[in-house]
Amino acid sequence: MRRIVLLLASIALAVIFVSGVALADSPTTKADCKKGGYAKYGFKSQRECIKAVKNAPPADTIPPVLTQVAGPAEGELYAGGQMYFESNEPVTFTYNMCTVGGVAPCPSYKEYGTGSDTRFELNWSTDNVRGDTPMVFYLKATDAAGNTTTVERRWTQEDIKPPEITVTGPEGVTSSTRAAYNLEANEPVTWECSFVLTPAGATEPNTEVDTGCYGGPMSWDINTDGKYVFTFKAKDAAGNTSTVTKTLVLDRVKPTVSITSGPGEGATVDTNSVSFGWNAEDNLEVENVRCFLEVAGTTERIQVDGSAPGDFKCGGTSYTGESRNPATFSNLADGQYTFYVMVFDSAGQWEIATRTFTVDTTP
Ligand SMILES: [Ca+2]
Ligand SMILES: [Ca+2]
Ligand SMILES: [Ca+2]
């Protein structure tokens, strides 16, 4: 009978011991050790249990302390792209950053780092900030004991990039009285447009004219010959500006040309070599002069002596060769010819002068 009681007692102890291991928690107060409580924690005596309570490190009940090292201060107008915090103990960081009033503002926290970090650093690009933008940032740090510290920052992300603008339309010389341009920008902008005219023959520009304008296709009537300098200025929502200018010359005055020497109209010459002097003028610029002989009754054209095949140029600002004035043609067969001299200005307007003559070398 005694053996049975002892056996039962040892089974009960084994159960208590096993369940003590299963509970596994450490005693936190002396009271936990009393009335046999020590056994639950696997101690052989109350004294050992109390000793363990005395020597145990204090539980961590202090939340992590976060210090901001870099990034926007609360309420700041901030142009940078970095948020940087340090923690006084290893923590798990979670965070989120988003625009205030966005379609889906900061829906949930995101994981950060290894789960045991002392620094949090987030960098972002400021290239695509379109106008000053209100932002919000949340950071939560959780230490190993589960204590948490949260930080919230609200600031305005500053748009410091000027808009990138493209203005397409005429430049150089034109004879068209309509100046049509297309204005484009990579972000919402307001446009300001103006032009300054220096009339043909004047040395000083007129006063600047401001004109209303918008993005997209715009056009202006220009009714006075001369040089127009258009200025297109775009301003983004944050006040950054970009400017493009286009210079356009309105020239509606045709050039003039005259033949100043050589066989007269209808003349017959008894030599197989002829030369024609010519004079070309324009209110702005003679860009190109072409000259050749046409053989009567054919489409054959004879070039100036010494010119390369297909090269009919003999003057003007686009011609950099030796002077072809007078224009000389040699070794002509007997027959009728017409001399042509054509002059073009920079706007592509042209004028022509001709002289028809006959070569008859028969004595
Ligand atoms: Ca702590
Ligand atoms: Ca901008
Ligand atoms: Ca002209």
Structure characterization notes:
The chain has 363 residues and is mainly beta. It has 4 domains: 2-55, no CATH class; 66-157, Immunoglobulin-like, CATH 2.60.40; 165-250, Immunoglobulin-like (Sandwich), CATH 2.60.40.10; 256-359, Immunoglobulins (Immunoglobulin-like, Sandwich). The chain is 10% helix and 47% strand. The chain is built from 3 helices and 23 strands. The chain has helices spanning 2-23, 37-40, 46-55, and strands spanning 66-70, 77-78, 82-99, 110-123, 133-142, 148-157, 165-168, 172-174, 178-185, 189-199, 209-211, 216-221, 226-236, 241-250, 256-261, 268-269, 274-281, 286-295, 301-302, 313-315, 327-329, 335-345, 350-359. Strands 1, 2, 3, 4, 5 and 6 form a 6-stranded mixed sheet that branches. Strands 16, 18, 19, 20, 22 and 23 form a 6-stranded mixed sheet that branches. The model is unreliable at 1-24 (pLDDT under 50). The protein binds calcium ion (CA) (3 copies). One calcium ion binds at residues 60, 62-64, 89, 143, 145, 147.
Features:
363 residues; mainly beta; Immunoglobulin-like; 6-stranded mixed β-sheet; 23 strands; 10% helix; binds calcium ion
| CATH topology call of the largest domain | Immunoglobulin-like
Shape: rod-shaped
Strand content: over 45%
Task: Profile the largest sheet.
Answer: 6 strands, mixed
Secondary-structure arrangement, i.e. CATH architecture of the largest domain? Sandwich
User: What is the residue-averaged pLDDT?
Assistant: 89
Element pattern in H and E: HHHEEEEEEEEEEEEEEEEEEEEEEE
Total of helices:
3
Poorly predicted runs of 5 or more residues: 1-24
By secondary-structure content and strand pairing, the structural class works out as mainly beta
The CATH class of the largest domain is Mainly Beta
- CATH superfamily descriptor of the largest domain: Immunoglobulins
Distance between the termini: 169 Å
| Radius of gyration, taken over Cα atoms and rounded to an integer in Å | 47 Å
Q: What small molecules does the structure contain?
A: calcium ion
Instruction: Please count the beta strands (DSSP E, at least 2 residues each).
Output: 23
Q: Compute the number of structural domains.
A: 4
Helix proportion: under 10%
